[in-house]
Amino acid sequence: MTDTIRKQASRLAAATVLAATLGLAAAPLAQAADPAPGAPAQLAPTELSAARGAAQSPSVLDQLGHFFARKGVPPNQSLALSPADEARAAAEAAPRLSGDTVPVYLLDPGFVAGTPGAPVARAEFTASKAVAADGQVASVWTARQGAGWRVVNIATGGDETDYAAKAAAGGGGTAFREPQIDAWYVLRGGRVLPLDEDARKAVGAGVPLADYQRQVKQRYGDKLPGSVYDREGKGGGYQAAPVAEPDGPSLLTAGTAGAALLATALTGLGLRARRRARG
Predict the structure, then answer these.
(1) Percent of the chain scoring above 90 in pLDDT
(2) Rounded to an integer, what distance in angstroms lies between the CA atom of residue 51 and that of residue 103?
(3) How far is it, in rounded angstroms, from Cα 191 to Cα 116?
(4) Residue 138 and residue 122: Cα distance in Å, rounded?
(5) To bridge 102 with a disulfide, which of 148, 164, 188, 204 should be the other Cys (CB 3.0-4.6 Å)?
(6) Contact 67/154 with Cβ under 8 angstroms?
């Protein structure tokens, strides 16, 4: 799938879940002490370590092998590949995690509303890049549920870790995503700077944090929880879907695109259509 198609799919998905995105009901991930004003609190190293442990469990690596063998095509869609050939290709994929497990920050609804002290974004899940022997790349998403961490999605590509690395290499700061327009930014030195073309269209070479807040309030302020937009059900109407146990065989697939990823803050994130697939 080309980047253009991915962007178009993202915008279509985001349009149906906009209010839900800004009305995440569950609390964000547990975090360490607050950093500078505007920046999200950072996840504790112990949390990231636990998240990575879940992402690299043998059962997840096995599922990654099948994900790569099927080139990201979910199990509920037909594929010209026999079970024996899929098993062989899964073993040959030899999936492994590469690089750091990173928190994934998404635009905070409190920031949109102008709540004093609200950070620009908050951590909603973590991502670990997985690579196959043939060069395929996937992102393993892990969320805290109850007392532990569980893998909740496997997606093609590695945007989450790639943009975090790009932000670090460019001078540090916090990479975050505005999912409604699929834009990636970095908050650095009190300014919101673009990390991709969609963000560049929104903020040019960068804007002060206060200016960015005014932008997103103008875009989404009338779509927050309790708004007419929200009450009329224009946010998408996602419903909770069951989540597999950490070592369980079942996975959400592209067929669940009309349901939430899980009954947590992940509900209604405005995710890319390509990221509905789990292998």
Answers:
(1) 56
(2) 10
(3) 17
(4) 23
(5) 164
(6) yes
Residue spans of the domains in the chain: they are 3-276
- Compute the average pLDDT of residues 115-138: 95
Per-residue pLDDT reduced to its tens digit, 83-113: 899 999 999 999 999 999 999 999 999 999 9
7-16, 69-78, 252-261: segment of lowest average pLDDT = 252-261
Nearest to 126 by CA among 71, 156, 164, 94: 164
Q: Give the pTM.
A: 0.74
Name which of 132, 120, 98 is nearest 215 in CA terms: 120
Q: Which amino acid is at 225?
A: P
What is the C-alpha radius of gyration for the chain, rounded to an integer number of angstroms?
A: 18
